[in-house]
Amino acid sequence: VKTLHPAIHGGLLARRDTAEHMEAIAAHNIKPIDLVIVNLYPFQETIQKPGVTLEEAIENIDIGGPSMLRSAAKNYAAVTVVVDTADYDAVLTELQEHGATTFETRQRLAAKVFRHTAAYDALIAEYLTNITGETFPEKVTFTYNRKQVLRYGENPHQDAAFYTEPGTIENSISAAKQLHGKELSYNNIRDADAALKIASEFTEPVAVAVKHMNPCGVGVGENIEEA
């Protein structure tokens, strides 16, 4: 155990605007920590490996990482905490240009941390619950990852985003890659999902046309072009 230590968490949690806090860490020779960057153990990637054992899964449950993240995020008034590599450039830019991050940035990153650790814990809970075979646990938490922001929702005046479950099934719309065309809307996603499900009913090459979830036509052939 290296990071579960008063020298770490004292430096993260000490409120800079509270004299009692600053005097306490000074008395124990604890230095304030202003920036935390953590990458958690890859629990999700581990349990998705074929043949993974319970011991391997448990070994990849991070303890120190989430603890540091939560301490830093709680004190976001003074501490910048980063859990997503997508935020590295923005944080570096603010540090280089202003010598510190803004309050708004720290608050946004803190919220992201709590979402991240909540999803991490939810996945662990789901994995262990499935192992125990418990059918109806007293609490159930679902977590999803945003895949993309959509052009609009069911109607053009509505905002929408497309979220997927962790461990997405390979042959599904959530795992599909858009090759060209404008940004998708909610209806595009629904239609594509319906078309894929229909096409999955066939073993031969098939083409499916769908409009607002209604199949308009299905063709089969020797190859995709003929279908």
From TrEMBL:
GO CC term (a single one): cytosol
UniProt xrefs under InterPro entries: AICAR_Tfase_dup_dom_sf, Cytidine_deaminase-like, MGS-like_dom, MGS-like_dom_sf, PurH-like
The keyword Hydrolase is assigned to this record: yes
Enzyme type, top EC level: transferase
PROSITE patterns: MGS
One Gene Ontology term from the biological process aspect of the record: 'de novo' IMP biosynthetic process
UniProtKB keywords: Hydrolase, Multifunctional enzyme, Purine biosynthesis, Transferase
MGS-like domain segment(s): 1-83
Listed EC numbers: 2.1.2.3
Record-given protein name: 5'-phosphoribosyl-4-carboxamide-5-aminoimidazole transformylase/IMP cyclohydrolase
Species: Listeria monocytogenes
Gene: purH
